[in-house]
Amino acid sequence: MIKNISNLGDAALYCDFGTEVNKEINRNVINYFNNLRDSNFLGITNITPSYNKLVISFDLKLTSFAKLKKQVENLELKKNNNSKNNLIKIPVCCAEEFALDIKRLQKLLKINEAKIYETFFSKNYYCYMTGFIAGMPFLGDMDKSLFAKRLETPRVKVPKNSIGITEQFCNIYTFESPGGWNIIGKTPVDIFDNKKNTEPNLINPGDTISFYPISKLEYEKKYE
Amino acid sequence: MNKNYFEVLRPGINSTFQDNGRNNFYHIGIPFSGAMDNRNFLLANTISNNEINNPVVEFAYQGPKLKYIGENISISITGDVNFKIIRKNKNLEFSCYENIILENNDCLDILSTNRSVYGYLSIGGTFEVDYYLNSCSTNTKAKIGANSGEKLKKGQIIHLKNIKKILPKNKIEYLNSKIENIRIIKGPHFDYFSKDAIDSFFSDEFNVTKLSDRMGIRLKGPKISNIKNTNIKSEGLVKGVIQITADGDPIIMLSDHGTIGGYPKIGVVISADYDKLVQIPPGSKIKFKEINLKDAETIFKLYEMETQNLISNIK
After folding, report:
1. Among A172, A179, A159, CA closest to A203
2. At residue B266, what are phi and psi to the nearest 5 degrees?
3. B268 touches chain A (CB under 8 A)
4. What is the pLDDT confidence band of residue B2, given thresholds at 50, 70 and 90?
5. Closest CA to B191 of B232, B220, B153
6. What gap in Å lies between CA A8 and CA A23, rounded to an integer?
């Protein structure tokens, strides 16, 4: 539950659910997020769930910190509506030209390539949050044997649709963007479709992701 | 009906279509966007007798040069802007904050913003633009909004619709006041910084660097040293948040900011200072001043009353 609500400036609430990163805390955050989305409290402009915080920004012309804080504190939580959360399967091609950091990882983790991929594909991953750039999902948790630091010098351009891993998390670069995660493959699926006017993002906070390997040939087929 | 359009002869440095912004998509990584200086955006639309959320062209530093083809149309420009209209080889001078009549074959040349950053062009009518998630605001990073999410380009045609009958003269006297002292409220990670760091944060000057755009303002000044951790678990950001990077430099998040961030937040700029903050050009010096929430709310009420007053003086 919310441990503390403070103000983030004069037009946002900063709801603290704790300091750890785990599914239980994050499910609480997302439960509040879903309930607040249905609440229609006056003046809310954005709600941002993350690992263990929820930031609610509002229009200072319509409401205030004190008013909205009281409403959030008194919010009656409906049971978590899990039907909103899906299992999504994402194909990944691990061809050499897409797996930009696999050699670095073998050295760093002292595990061979085959074992890295076997471990990576054997788990399902939970979406803690999406954001930073449009639609980018932050997924976890990685198997401990794959915990790896970020690149010392981030890449100026990580190719769109790259799969990256760092520490306990993995993500998908929804746009070409700067980034420092270890790139292990690429998906032919667009995670964020900027032509779609409703639900442009494939993955939402609370969803479960299962990655599966595809060959270069299948990758090219899907890309067509 | 007649075809009315602008041809872009020169796009300017960063000219985009904007409106009031896009609500309720932070959770999928889509920032608020919208006009950076909301007051000047509202004034531009009010002078042109438009709905308050009508699209405008926002420009930065150097604006676009536009050739107009069509029936007479009212336009207005807000901000602290140098511009002229070239009509039959003659240069005509006008002021900001009034509606001006543009004739067929006129050329509107928006030369520069004066010791500020953003200016706005509205028309008595509507730019024909695409909407995405309830807003036409252009976000060039996610490539969404009007103009396929891109800045204006040389040679492109901007179609206009719903051209209004020429309006009676609307004019206000308005001076864009500048600020050097930015008022902020303490952020959630205030205790990540040493007492000395906090002292110099509030007493020293910071330079606004060239690495500033619609996403954020990067500052250089004394290093703000961290005594806990230079990273936090990534969490939600809002407009005006001041993050301190691992290098000890402050970054102020602006309207196109990444929706989540992993640097500690030392403070948040108060809402009433946001419009003025975004207008501070690179090369300027700024200082931070701490105030409490109650004062920030009162100052915002006054700022909002002032804006409404300006608007009702036009109507």
Report:
1. A172
2. -80, -25
3. yes
4. low
5. B232
6. 25
Whether the CB of B88 is below 8 Å from some CB of chain A: the reply is no
- Residue B283 contacts residue B207 (beta carbons within 8 Å): yes
Chain B residue closest to A50 (CA)? B235
CA dist., res. A16 & res. B96, Å (int): 46
Beta strands in A26-117 (DSSP E): 44-49, 53-58, 87-93
Instruction: Quote the CA–CA distance of B147 and B97 in Å, as a whole number.
Output: 26
Using alpha carbons only, give the angle A98, A102, A103 rounded to the nearest 5 degrees: 125
Q: What is the pTM assigned to this prediction?
A: 0.94
Q: Are residues B142 and A134, on separate chains, in Cβ contact within 8 Å?
A: yes
Q: What is the ipTM of this complex?
A: 0.95
Provide the shortest C-alpha distance from residue B62 to chain A (in Å). Answer: 27
Partner residue opposite B28 with nearest CB, options A16, A52, A134: A134
The yes-or-no verdict on residue B14 having pLDDT over 70 is yes
Beta carbons of A46 and B32 less than 8 Å apart? yes
- CB burial of A65-85 (b: ≥16 within 10 Å; e: otherwise) equals beebbebbeeeeeeebeeeeb
Nearest to B62 by CA among B12, B127, B137: B12
pLDDT tens figures, B203-254 = 999 999 999 999 999 999 999 999 998 889 999 999 999 999 988 999 999 9
Residues 35-74 of B with CB under 8 A from A: none
- Does the pLDDT of residue A201 top 80, yes or no? yes
Q: Do A201 and B28 touch (CB under 8 A)?
A: yes
Mean pLDDT of B126-141: 95
Q: Which uninterrupted H or E stretch holds B68?
A: strand B65-69
**What dihedral do alpha carbons A33, A35, A36, A41 form, nearest 10°?**
180
| pLDDT at A82 > cutoff 80 | no
